[in-house]
Amino acid sequence: MEETNREAVATAVQRVAGMLQRSDQLDKVEQYRRREARKKASVEARLKAAIQSQLDGVRTGLSQLHNALRDVKDIQNSLADVSKDWRQSINTIENLKDVKDAVVQHSQLASAVENLKNIFSVPEIVADTQVLIEQAELLEAHRKLMDLECSRDDLMYEQYRMDSKNTHDMNLIRNYFGAVQGLSDDLAKQLWMVLQRAMGTVRRDPTMLVSVVRIIEREEKIDRRMLDRKKQMGFIPPSRPKSWKEKMFEVLEGTVTTRIEGSQSVTREADKMWMVRLLEITRKYVLDDLIVVKNLMVQADIGSVFVEMMGHPDLVTEYDIHLMDPLLPQKVVDELLSKYVQTFTSNITGWLRKALETDKKDWFKETEPEADQDGYYQTTLPAIVFQMFEQNLQVAAQIDETFKEEVLKLCLKQMNSFLIRYREEAIAYKEDHLRDRQLPQCYVQYMIAIINNCHTFKESINSLKKKYLKCTEPTQNDAAIERTLNDVAKDGCQFLLDEVFLDLEHHLSELLTRKWLTGTHAVDTICVTVEDYFNDFAKIKKPFNTEMTSEAHRRVVVEYIKAVMQKRITFKNADERREGADRMIKEAEQFKFLFRKLTAGEETDRLCDAIAAIAEVFKLTDPTLLYLEVSTLVSKYPDIREEHIVALLAVRGDASREMKQMIIETLNQNKPSYAGNTQPIFKDITIPTVTMTSMSSSMAATANKLLK
């Protein structure tokens, strides 16, 4: 307390010191004193109010505690009185056991009295019920059966309540009502018979079918009630639950099955079209029966059962098809789809093989293949193949999207294998032709059709993918198909060019020879032959046509330069060099004119300019400038090699060994690098070399001649 006072005094001193730091503040001392006095009075008032509030709360709490204590004591006294009364009543409860037994006995007797009339008349009611069942008065018969079962069940229930272990009395009741179970079975047989003939019954007497359904509904309610009592009391009458509703569904399902199976009038052995006939008859019966179900079974309330089993929701728009079970279990559907895929894979392999065999037979015909609307040769193979694919994809699309895409992928997979066989057959076709170039007569035309078919295959595949695939991203299989088709087309173009150059072989062998120098028409013949072939090749679709023209141009120029490099001629003097060079330049212009014509004016000069550039090397009259001319040739065509230059100088005929050596060494030191941006010309041209083995053979042959 003292420490608190000291802190308060220190705080006050500090506060006063803060107020009186300047001399002019002394005049306000009285004002400061009054202000602090007001603050002190306010704080004391708040403090008193807070203390008073706390005291009131404590007083209220104490009062409530006193009241609670008093209530607890009262409750304690009451519990003591209850405990005392309970102990005193135990003997009284034991004394009332006789009264309880009397109540149970009274309940049983009351039930017996209530059913006394039925008990004594059980044999008579059983006989009447039997007659009603035989007369097909099913509702009345069921009413009497329910009365008998009710009397039996009530008596057995009371016996169970009185003494559940007394099997003698229970069996006595069961035996007395033994005929009731037989009536129930007979009635059930009548119900199932009516349901088995439901389609005929509903036409003849719809009320009969309605009565059957009402009886089954009553039994279902009784089954539910008895099952509830079993949960509560543990007792259930004999033959319960009857479960007639489940049996009704089984009978109806059997009726539909028998109806469909009974429509098969022929077998596979008797008629190959037995399945078509069976499906048509089934379709007719199903539609007729469903119309009857829709129009006449509404009152019986079992129409949805038939639709559920026959699956034609268009006939019954009032039923919620989403509540219906599928026609086939998913396991059966999966098995059928798996079997379909296996069968389809086997079939499509056979179909494709047969289609290819048929197409191959056409290749050997003496008539040209058909042309499309644009005049391009083609065969019917692509149309046959993709018609097969289209038909099977339409069937698959009726199942679901996933299965449709699976079938398309399977088709494309088989397509890749088929195209590999297609390529092999095209190669075999070319080899057969080479054994006798006169056969087949239309070899060129059908090879063109094979090339064009590759283009058609590509378009058809893309069309199928766009139509039947959601995602058209290229796959590994797509790349394989594209690669195989390009290989087939490339092979076909190569085979046709080989055919051209087989005809040109003799004329190409005349180039750069003495005969050529004195004047031949070899190049004229070459140009005419190439142009004649390319009139047929115009029926090849782009881009294959364009690529083939470029390759033919390259091969003609390469063969011409190859003739130069083979050193078939060595010029003897400047006049021969000038004459040969002029002829080469003229023939280069002929080739330019030809291939400009074939390529519709596209740039073709570079390849032919290589011939003119070589001609300039031959035409040069001053040997001292030969290095400059050769270096110009090398700069234009950097893929030219040392052996090519040696061959050119050898053909020129006037270059000394020292000059050749100097030109080669200088070019090797300053040879430009080949960037590969332009099409190479000299790369595929090899120079024949004389090996030691061939030289030895030649020398040996000469020696033998001399000895002879």
From TrEMBL:
Recorded hits in InterPro entries, A to Z, give: EXOC3/Sec6, EXOC3/Sec6_C
Q: Which UniProt keywords apply?
A: Acetylation, Cell projection, Cytoplasm, Exocytosis, Golgi apparatus, Protein transport, Transport
Q: Where in the cell is it found?
A: Cell projection, Growth cone; Cytoplasm, Perinuclear region; Golgi apparatus; Midbody
Superkingdom of source: Eukaryota
Under Pfam families, the record lists:
Sec6
Q: A single GO BP annotation from the record? A: exocyst localization
Quaternary structure and partners: The exocyst complex is composed of EXOC1, EXOC2, EXOC3, EXOC4, EXOC5, EXOC6, EXOC7 and EXOC8. Interacts with EXOC3L1. Interacts with BIRC6/bruce. Interacts with MYRIP. Interacts with SLC6A9.
This protein's GO cellular component annotations are: exocyst; Golgi apparatus; growth cone; membrane; midbody; perinuclear region of cytoplasm
Which protein, by its recorded name, is this? Exocyst complex component 3
Family to which this protein belongs: Belongs to the SEC6 family.
Native source species: Oncorhynchus mykiss (Rainbow trout)
The entry lists its GO molecular-function terms as: SNARE binding
| Chain's role | Component of the exocyst complex involved in the docking of exocytic vesicles with fusion sites on the plasma membrane.
